[in-house]
User: What shape does this take?
Amino acid sequence: MAISNLFQAIQSQCKESYTENLQAYEKYLKALEATLADVQKAFKIEATAASKKWNSLVPIHQLPKELFTQILQPSLPNIPHNVISDQVIRYTKDYYINVYRLREVSSAWKSAVDRTPDL
Assistant: This one.
C-alpha cells in the first residue's frame, strides 16, 4: 500500500507540474500573439506612410489638377446624344465604374478625382 500511495503522490505532483507548465506556455503564447499583432499594426502604419510618401514623389501626382483631369477624361466613356434611355443608364453605369477604378489607383488619385467636379 505504501508504494501505491507513493506512486499516486508522484503522479499527482507530475500532473500539477504539467498543468502549471501548460498554463505558463499558454500565457507566453498569448503574449507573443499580442506582440505580433502590435508589430503587424505598426508595420502596416509605417508601410502606408512610406507608400504615400513615395506616391507623392511620382511625377503624375505633381501635375496641376486641370492637366490631371484632362489626362483622365479620355479614359471615361462619353454618353452620345442620340441614345435611348436604357443606353443612357448603361453609359452612366460604365462612367461611374471607371471613375471608381480611377479612385482605386492610389490615395492621391482618389483625392484628385474626389476634388474634381468635372469627373
Q: What stands out?
A: DSSP finds four helices and no strands in the chain. The CA atoms of residues 51 and 58 lie 11 Å apart. The chain has a mean pLDDT of 80.
